[in-house]
Amino acid sequence: MQSKKPERVAAKVLSVEQVSCLEGLLDDMELDVKDWYACGAFLFCIYSRSRISDVKFVHSFVIDTVVSGSSVQGFLECGTRSHKTARQAAVQGVSMPLIAPVNGVTENAWGPRFVAVALAAGLPLTGERQGPLLPAPRDAGDWRERAVTSDEAGSWLRALLSRRHKCTDGVTGHSLKATTLDWCGKYGLQESEQTLLGHHALKGATMYAYMRDKLAAPLRSYEGMLGSVRKGLFLPDATRSGLFRVEASVSVPVEQGQPALSSQDNWSLVRPENTSPVTDGDSGPVGGEAPPPEESDAEGRHYQAAALTPEAAAEEFLSSLPGDFEEDGPDWSDAFQGETFTCGRKKTPDYSKVAQSAFLETRLCSNCRKSKPVRDLGALNAILSKNLKR
Q1: Last residue of a domain, one of 242, 271, 299
Q2: Dihedral sign, CA of 116, 121, 122, 128?
Q3: Pairing relation of β-strands 96-101 and 58-68?
Q4: Between 6 and 238, the higher pLDDT residue
Q5: Gap between the Cα atoms of 101 and 119, Å rounded
Q6: CATH number, domain containing residue 48
Q7: CA dihedral sign, ordered 47, 48, 53, 58
Q8: Spatial separation of the C-alpha atoms in residues 100 and 179, rounded to whole Å
Q9: Domain assignment of residue 170, yes or no
Q10: Host domain of residue 226
Q11: Which long-range contacts (CB under 8 A, 24 or more apart) does 144-153 make?
Q12: Average pLDDT estimate for 366-383
């Protein structure tokens, strides 16, 4: 029976333009300080892959940044026990880390600006900070003790995006966590990295029992993905066929006075013109010496051998051997006396004598090869002496 359940409607992920808008609003002097702080809190949720419910109660903020010249690298980090598996965290006594890179989708790092705005809003991001990341505002201008709900956060987010005339259809508070995780999937991060970045546990991964920083390697890949977005190499809002920008081919400048070449032009071999007159005594190419006959012959033999098939090579090898093959000679290792070979094995109905073969050495019985025929008186004396010693 066909299901009559309506189609599931998931929260829409934010576009790169919308995330860039939130980063730009951190510098909008027309906004109230609370709106500034809300922009930073939403960006923290986006880049730390967190739900609104995950930041209802956070603690122990860490600003881990390194300044190199005019650029800054690093992370904003805090812990939370207010999440889906909070009951298990309470039993184990382990908080879930929320870590966000300070560099987003624009060239200007959002992290340091959020730290400054938080200090101005009276909610500094320090190690002593405990409580909701985004408290509900009062009409009087201060902050409430409780955190904003998901519906309140969604309304606030849509209001901020509307200030820059960005489309907000389908945008809710649940869009924050899904945004960059969706980008990770399109970018092609490993499944284990996406699992850890989404704050999920890996089944059977006992190696993490002794690790103190499980997110170190996944965060490096995560920063690489965000860097590709900043450089315009990865376009997560495009369709499957246009997710990655194709680098333009390098064009060689054409000198003035020379016609440009096209792939439609016909190409033909042009031999060099004679630069000096040829006399009757010339026997080699003009302008150079003829190669030695030994080198020419060696080169010809090389290309001739390269063009031979295995069968042709075998025929050529056989024809090059001096004399005719002897069917019953002492040189053949398949010679036997009566019904027994020289190595001691008996003849079977499957036996067939090999008269000629280009690969005779590979067909020889190793034991028969050891049974060398007696060719002279010295060999006979050696065999007799060996038998007498037994």
Answers
A1: 242
A2: negative
A3: unpaired
A4: 238
A5: 19
A6: 1.10.443.10
A7: negative
A8: 13
A9: yes
A10: 16-242
A11: 147/52, 147/55, 147/56, 147/57, 148/52, 149/52, 150/51, 150/52, 150/53, 150/174, 153/42, 153/52
A12: 63
Strand partners, 294: none
Amino acid at residue number 187: Y
> Does the pLDDT value for residue 86 go beyond 80?
no
Closest-CA residue to 121 (of 81, 129, 161): 129
Dihedral sign computed on CA atoms, order 80, 85, 89, 91? positive
Cα–Cα distance measured from residue 351 to residue 121, given in angstroms and rounded to the nearest whole number? 98
141 torsion bin: left (phi>0), alpha (psi -120 to 50), beta (else): left
Give the contacts of 180 (CB within 8 A, at least 6 positions apart): 46, 47, 49, 222, 225, 226
Split into its structural domains, the chain has a count of: 2
With 70 as the cut, is the pLDDT of residue 320 above it? Answer: no
Name, in order, each residue with C-beta under 8 angstroms of 97's C-beta and a sequence gap of 6 or more: 77, 78, 79, 215
Structural domain includes residue 67: yes
Tokens matching residue 355: 């008269």
How confident is the model at residue 331, as a pLDDT? 42
Confidence bin at 214 (pLDDT 50/70/90): confident
Helix (H) or strand (E) holding 137: strand 135-137
Instruction: Tell me the C-alpha to C-alpha distance, in Å, between residue 149 and each of 143, 145, 252.
Output: 14, 13, 59
- Top pLDDT among 123 and 83 is at 123
Characterize 266-299 residue by residue with b for buried, 16 or more Cβ atoms within 10 angstroms of its Cβ, and e for exposed: eeeeeeeeeeeeeeeeeeeeeeeeeeeeeeeeee
Residues in the chain: 390
